[in-house]
Design brief:
Number of helices: 13
Number of strands: 3
Oligomer: single chain
Helix content: 55-70%
Structural class: mainly alpha
Order of helices and strands: HHHHHHHHHEEEHHHH
Largest sheet: 3 strands, mixed
Shape: elongated
Strand content: under 5%
Radius of gyration: 23 Å
Length: 292
Amino acid sequence: MKENDMSIIFDVGQRPLINKAGSGTATGQEHGQLARAMMQQEGLIFQRQAVRMQLQRGAWTGDPWCMGQLARSYYDQGRELLPHALCWWRRAAVVSDRGALEDLQRLPIEADILQYRSDSSEFADMVLRCAMLTEWVLTDLGRTSWSALSFASRLERLQRLFDKVVPVLHLNGSIQLQHQNVLPGQRPDVGGLARWQQRAILIRDSIFDGYSNLIRLSFHELGHFVQFSMWDPDTASSRAQQQRFGVTRDRVLSWRQKAEYPASLSSPIEADADTLAYNVLMAWTAFFGRFR
């Protein structure tokens, strides 16, 4: 590679593209052309942040090459940026960008997700791991359309997701996915049940048609299993979970008051199950929800 200095003589052929990028009239492909010129030092020096900005601008306009290159840039810089990398790889995979598909095939994505750490709290890292695993398992990070899957395939993938997030949430054993058209003894708006004694989560069949709602409901019921893991608040395992999730002993004891709120979604046990569910959904939405 050439020295990254003024020995690289400016190529006047880049001037029209620079002018278009500066005026906001460049296409996604043209932003990609500028990024490529800097990366290959074709009349422009390599400047990492400027390259990434051109890739970002191209990616936001929907250019597949920019998406894939931006994902690789995030991935190569450090594992804390893994969610950003997966965000753009997913979008590139949805439009079948060959480079993105090759990256997702060859790189240890799942292992990277499971090893993800940041300078945030342990709970925040667990939430983001769950969000990344959700998209990785349920849609192969954009390579498979959820709407195109058969009901049997949807069941298999959700069970596989449960298997992978159980250790992330520090839950012992396995949790079996069950499904029914109508949940026995429940209001019509109830979509799922956590069955502690059976180590199972029961989900109403119609829920599988709404992808984001399925994510929320699944982690709400998993949230109940997190609560069950702290049910006896003075055991060593319960105290360890309380520390991981930032839950006090009094808060654990408040969950036992469910009988006093038989039909209330605002009871402590339901509200705290939603705390896990909506934080995972928010993380998923941030990186994998639809763009405008």
